[in-house]
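Got a spare moment? Tell me how you read both lines of this record:
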Amino acid sequence: MKTSGSCVLLLAGLMLVGGCDVHVGKPQSNSEVVAPDQVMDFATLYGENCAGCHGVDGKGGAAIALSDPAYLAISDRAAVRKVIVNGVPGTPMPAFAQSAGGMITEKQIDVIVDGMRSRWNKPGMPDGVVRPSYEAKSAGDASQGAVNYKAYCESCHGPEGRGGPKGSSITDPAYLSLVSDQGLRTVVITGRPELGAPDWRGNVPGKPMSDREITDVVSWLASRRAKNSLETDSARNNVQH
């Protein structure tokens, strides 16, 4: 019994000696907390700043899918970076750069942009089809846009864009008030693959939309926004009088 007790005491002593440098609450060498502006991991930065709207792995959510090859094919690095830095005024897309009132640094924005392109871009896409420009090259023609809408979009989104059997309303005042003209153009070009909406190549089989046709459809959609605004102002005036 004495020998057994001595062993127990010896073991306890060794444990105390071996653990004398371990204190509750004392940070270990591998537990150092990284300052928010020093985080340079793409998955962390994307997850904390982008995934809430654009979905896990860029697969889309409330906002467009950033991992969509069609989107990355038309939007170059500078265009994507500009949107992240400055946001899009008048829409839910905020400015993320600290220089514009956001929370992340220029270097962190570079990590996000370069991570998107290195992980999700497909060089050479689209094959054998003229790629429309990210930004409009000229002003659009709303009246011609109405004609183009009927040819390419009405079968899904219904007459006057009020919604149809395959697509939601895209002239709804609430929707148009939350999306910029560039946002409209981007969606007309890229579609919403996560929602089953085709890109500019798939609205009419074998007949991709031309850059000009896209510009005119966007002009027509923007004119619906202006019409909604005038109707809202008129209704307010009628109430006031």
About this structure: The first helix runs from residue 2 to 18. The chain has a mean pLDDT of 86. Residues 36-120 form a domain with the Cytochrome Bc1 Complex; Chain D, domain 2 fold (CATH 1.10.760.10). The chain has two domains: 36-120, 142-236.
